[in-house]
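In practice, a research group might receive sequence data for several interacting partners and want a quick structural hypothesis before committing to experiments. The following worked case mirrors that situation: the sequences arrive first, and a predicted assembly follows.
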Amino acid sequence: MTEPGSSSSDRVVRIEVFLDDRPEAVQIVTAPPFRFQLDTTGLDEGAHSLRVVRIDASGGRRERRIPFHVEHASDVEVRGLEPGATVSGSVEVDVVVPPPPAASLPKPKGPPTWLYLLMTVLILGGIWVFFMVVPIYSNLVPAPSEGGSTASAPSTPAPPVDAALLKAGEQLYTSDCAACHKPSGEGMPPTFPALAGNSFLSDATATVKRIYEGSGAMPSHPSYSAKMLAEVATYIRNTWGNAYGGVSVADAAAAEPSASNTGAAPASGSAPAASSTGSSGASAGSAAGSSSETTPSGSTSSTSAATPSSSAGSTASGASAQPSTTAPAAAAAPSGGIDKATMDAGEQLYEAQCTSCHQANGAGLPPTFPALAGNAALSDATAVVQRIFDGKGIMPAHKTLNVQQLADVATYVRNSWGNAFGPVTAEQAAQAAPKAAQ
Amino acid sequence: MYRNDRVIPFFTLVFAAALFLMSYLDGRHITALSGGKPQPLSVGQIGLISLGLVFLVYGIIGYISVWLEGRELRPGVHKARPGKAQWVGMALSVLAVALSGLFVQAIVHSLRTQENHPGAEGIIFGSISLTVAGLLMVYKHYYQDDEVHVESEDSEVPW
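A structural hypothesis for the assembly, expressed as tokens:
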């Protein structure tokens, strides 16, 4: 009800509401808005009347009576069947019932709060623990660039890094180590541990010893000179976020006295390594006449000293002046129809680039690195050459090998450790790997 | 009655957070391998983030459903009670207008100076979208009546 009048005498000061003929008012409203709730739930069904009395400021009273009808069933709305409708057959009727008061219904219960918290902690914490426990991720805390956790690293500043050793070490690493430890240093845990962030590398002496002597699946590198050890150690200690400092040749020689010293390494037949490290300009090995720039192999044996020409030729991938190791092979004694020089050259290449995975005895490290001894797949000379040149899966490609080197390695692996699949000529290798250098 | 549960949205958001965490840790690992230099997102990170965003949106939608419809749907007519929601609506409307003006100004500034600030422009536009979404939610919750029907199990809905 609203106030229609505007004069002060007509101003409504009170509204009294009476129900039916009851003497007492059920509602009294003294201030606008003159609104009230009429509860019909306590009324009987049937006719009723509402009497509204308006009292003005001057005392005048006016009233109005409003008849109405109460039907309690009206809170159920029926849709589809109108009163008085004529129907036949099946009739679909919707009954719309107003919702009961919310307080009368039980509230749905969910899992307790502590269960939410517990599951959240377990899920997120599990992921964090996974990244910390799995070896490849264990270096995240602390960050690997912060150095190792051993006593030798944190208190003393890292030794300076020789850029030449670092660069030469990268070549050696790529040729001899990357197959297992990966170019990214992630390795293939658990067999081949990650070097990135590996705190073991903080110990320079232990690192040099591990490279030289090997351990478990890690092959030894007895042909490495002290300089080569220093190069590789410097590289892996200062790459992929590692910052453990350089390793000098003197440090490497001190750590592994049995390794040949810098000057002796190339003379003992490590011409390929000398050439690879010769890019640093510091190796006396480059004076041995090996002008190879690409073959970083450093693993040579004393036999190469006995056949220096074959050694030089087999590793001179970049030098076309002496592309063939078979040139002097005429002087070499054939062995079962296979040139000894070819086998020797192949052996040298194999030891330099293949033994870390396939092992010196050809047994490999199955299932990751298959055995070559007794491997029937070697019977296909073309496939062997292609596999060596192009690689496959984790087997790295050897694009730097020329056709003669490919033939040498293929011949060696096909005719060693009891294998007798026959030689592979340079012509066959050239056909199998047409992109290889002649 | 049909349960509009909060369990699934909650764990969806937890999974989204887990995926984002994995992406973050993976990025740290990649950064560590590259000598501490920040690297672009890897394919793996992009995949994790994408899946995380899917979970995030799904979880947010779930919580919005709970807020709009309640945890349990009850048959009947549900009248909307605006209460004081008009103030919220007015505030969101003003915010949307202000953000729109800011966005236009940013575009004009870019055209004049030839200096693009895609990050800022993206944030402003995203804020506009979220504000409009909030307005729609407020309207749906406070101004639109609902009616919940009871359907038999063999209703037309195939699931």
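Before designing any experiment, note the following. Chain A has 15 helices and eight strands. Confidence is low (pLDDT under 50) at residues 1-6, 141-155, 262-335 of chain A.
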